[in-house]
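Whiteboard transcription, Tuesday session. T.W. wrote the C-alpha cells on the left side:
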C-alpha cells in the first residue's frame, strides 16, 4: 500500500473513533435517573404479571366479622 493511503486511512479511523467517543459521552449524559429506571421496571413487571391496579393486590374482605 501507498504510505499516503495509510496516512489517510489512519486519519479517517481516528476521526471515527473521536466521533464514537462523543456519541458515548452524549449517551451517558442523556441517561435516565435511577429512580426513573426503577419506576419503569416496576411498572413493566406489573404489566407483565397482569396487575393493572396501582394499589396492593390483596382481596377485599366482604362480610368479615371483625371488620369495621
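and on the right, the sequence the group agreed on:
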Amino acid at each position: 500500500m501507498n504510505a499516503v493511503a495509510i496516512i489517510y486511512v489512519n486519519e479517517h479511523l481516528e476521526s471515527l473513533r473521536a466521533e464514537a467517543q462523543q456519541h458515548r459521552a452524549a449517551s451517558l449524559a442523556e441517561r435516565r435517573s435511577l429512580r426513573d429506571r426503577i419506576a419503569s421496571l416496576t411498572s413493566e413487571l406489573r404489566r407483565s404479571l397482569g396487575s393493572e391496579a396501582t394499589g396492593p393486590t390483596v382481596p377485599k374482605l366482604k362480610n368479615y366479622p371483625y371488620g369495621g
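Someone added at the bottom: Residues 3-29 form the longest helix (27 residues).
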